[in-house]
Amino acid sequence: MGLELASYGTESYDEMADVDFSDSEVVSYVRDALKSVAEGDTDRYNQLIGVMHYTEGLAADEVALLVTSLQALSGVVSHVDITLHDALLSSIFGMSMWNYGPDVMVALVELIKSLAVSNGGFVDSCLDMLVRNFMPPKSFIGFLRQPWGCARKNEVLNRVHSALSDIAYLVPLAPLRLLPIILKRMPTMFDNEALLVMYVESMLRLESSAIGEFIGSTMLMAVVDRLVDLDVEIGWDEIIQEDSSKGIFHMELEDVEETADYVGKGESEFCRGTLSGLNFGGNVVADKLDNLMVLTCQHLESCYDEGRLTKVFDTLLHSFRITILNAYKSKFAQFVMFYACSLDPGSCAVNFANLLSDLFLCETHPPLTRMSAAAYLGSYLARAKFLSTSLIAYMLKRLVGWCYNYIQIHGGEVKSISPQAHRIFYSGCQVVMYVLCFRMSSMVDVPPLKSQLFQMPLEQILHHPLDPLKVCLPSIVKEFLRQAKAARLFTVSENFFSSDLLESDSSKAFGGRERLDMFFPFDPCLLKNCDRFIRPNFVYWSMVRTTYDDEASSEEEDDNDVLSEDARARSSDEHDIDLDEFEYSMNKMSITPRTSSKHGLTGLQASMRMPAKIRPSTSPESL
Amino acid sequence: MEGLKVSDANLVVYILPSKANRIPQALRGELSSLLFKFNEEFDGVVLVYDILAQSKNGKILPGLTPYFGVNVRAKLLLFSPKPDMLLEGKVMKLRKESIHVIVLGFSYATIAEEDIRGEFRYKIKHGEEVFGSTSHKRHVIKVGSMIRFLTKSFDEEILHISGSLIPANTGSIGWLDKHMRESSEVDRTNKKNREREAHGSRLINEATISLDNEYPPKKSKRSKMVE
């Protein structure tokens, strides 16, 4: 210790001029200043408050004075009264650590810790002050990009977090008091992005800390809530044009070309094209969501590395169930679940699938929840690369079993199809068909699963008077039947291929106002930054080998010559699909790059082009 | 340690109808929400509860929310420190200005410098901060010691105790207990000695009184003389 104050010369610090003070003298000075307030003598007290208000551009001696005053106060906290010294306390709690250098930071943090443990009445204010320091003052935000700003950020946050754990060590109930403070101060989705991201970063850091044992799960749930808030703000209309005439397999927006300024880039980048159609507000929201999701995914990754993922996953699952599942057509927030499952395919992934299937199969849940769970299950089983085929087969068996029971109960009395009344059944059927579109080929390749598949009473379900083939989404039905025919799963009558199954009204009817018939939650993620977490574990339609591939492949070879030179030139190690997001002929199912799937993911794909383009091409290649 | 008591409580616990098929769990949930909070009615912080009996029927509360009330008989362990009670806790942090103690793992106490009796001096021994007694070399308080202290006040909201080490029977528990034992043994032998001495000293006192007459007389005598 032993900080000697330099002499001040002509400074106007009355009693402190021209003298070197020892620590104990300063401490007694401050103690007397505090005590004298009760007697009405506030001169020294006010001077002390004045010192607390030093902010930027401090000279060395001002810094020293501030540091000494803070240190002296730490020594006399037992003399600080919550009412008498209210003004001093507010100045102290109003200080932002971001404005100061390390010396002042250390002294300030020590003072805050001393205050918190000395008197129960100060605990909440001290915790509040520390939580407020999770974020810099608005004026500082611009400096964050600079190296010194970044360094300052690390200094502040390290000290704040260690102060919180020190306080929790001495005040056992501090985490309990901390929780509501953190939740109250959490920035809303309308706040500045840098602040929001920094705060969430601190929240997640707390989750990993020792205090996290008590408050971690609530922190995580609050973060997921914020993700959902942001998600809901992004409008669906801006992303996808809802048109049931487009086959959903066309709408694989994994690589959508933008306009001319996107010339010839080899990589498949996520289209800003689709999101650029959003109004300005929406784009900002998408960026915020994107950055928060990156943070969350990184946090989950570190949880996995620390071996904590299973416990954290329980919280995530609970949070998913109460927020994301019932949020109206959540767009991207659910990818957090997807990523968590991908980290631990052995147990977390299976738990998620079990939750969804249990929700669907349990009769006591409300219909919307069940249908939503079905949509999630279908999309998940189809898109998750890390799921074993046997698990998928097992899930399908459960679903098919339920559908079969359903038709037994609802026998043959159906006079006219009422999609609304049997919507759960139709969503179940649609899920089965959708999953099989993606997975039939791989199941057929494995003999035990193939026989399981063939033993499922699919034909009876699909040809039942309730007629799911007419009610479910036409594009799915088409693709499914095509694959079923190729696999010789059951007999399919030819007229299904020729007739225009445009019964969008029927599927609309069962989908209801929410259009749950067209809800595929794990369709490719459009958020640029967090996509890199998802992509390695994601099944794109282009990667799927269908059952008619093998038969048709020989015919398709010729068609590939139609490929443009530009398209060929675009090489990438990811699957490039050249997709047009506009109108296609309704009866065409997509794209499927047959050759590429054989050679893995490299190579180029051709899309079956319509002779007439309705819009001018935005893609470099033009035929 | 003082401040702990066991109480019998007759409670009515109100439960939502959705939990009607899992009453024991619901009761435990409700009672658990009382834990580690100061409760005015019980006049203490509930630490442990033990449900002894519950009624078979519950009376439905009239009104908008149809809670139903289940009568429960429970035993509660309450912590309610009052001023001048002696409490025990473990020292977590020690500074010149204060000692910080944790009591029963959930409550914390601070003993400020001015509440530590002069006998104890702050010093740094072998690189460790300690409070050492000046009169008894073995009596040392450091981080990790269990100490007994007097309660000055109790903040019910945050469960903070303001403590004092002024009374002579406060300090490191290990040393105090040992010292009490030794001093009680010493006392027994001393008692006999004292009795012997008392007899002897009566004779000596008479002699000293007569001697003291010349030297500054005792006040009482003086006053007698004055009167």
Automatic annotation (TrEMBL), chain A:
One of its GO terms (cellular component) is nucleus. GO terms for biological process: transcription initiation at RNA polymerase I promoter. Residues 550-576, 593-623 are annotated as: Disordered. Residues 565-574 have a biased composition (Basic and acidic residues). GO terms for molecular function: RNA polymerase I core binding; RNA polymerase I general transcription initiation factor activity. It comes from the Eukaryota. InterPro entries: RNA_pol_I_trans_ini_fac_RRN3 (IPR007991). It holds the Pfam family RRN3. Residues 550-564 have a biased composition (Acidic residues). Belongs to the RRN3 family. This is RNA polymerase I-specific transcription initiation factor RRN3. The lineage of its organism: Eukaryota, Viridiplantae, Streptophyta, Embryophyta, Tracheophyta.
Automatic annotation (TrEMBL), chain B:
Keywords: DNA-directed RNA polymerase, Nucleus, Transcription. The keyword Secreted does not apply. GO terms for cellular component: RNA polymerase I complex. The keyword Lipoprotein does not apply. GO terms for biological process: DNA-templated transcription initiation; transcription elongation by RNA polymerase I. Residues 182-227 are annotated as: Disordered. It is found in: Nucleus. It comes from the Eukaryota. Its main location: nucleus. Residues 218-227 have a biased composition (Basic residues). Residues 182-200 have a biased composition (Basic and acidic residues). DNA-dependent RNA polymerase which catalyzes the transcription of DNA into RNA using the four ribonucleoside triphosphates as substrates. This is DNA-directed RNA polymerase subunit. It comes from Protea cynaroides. The lineage of its organism: Eukaryota, Viridiplantae, Streptophyta, Embryophyta, Tracheophyta.
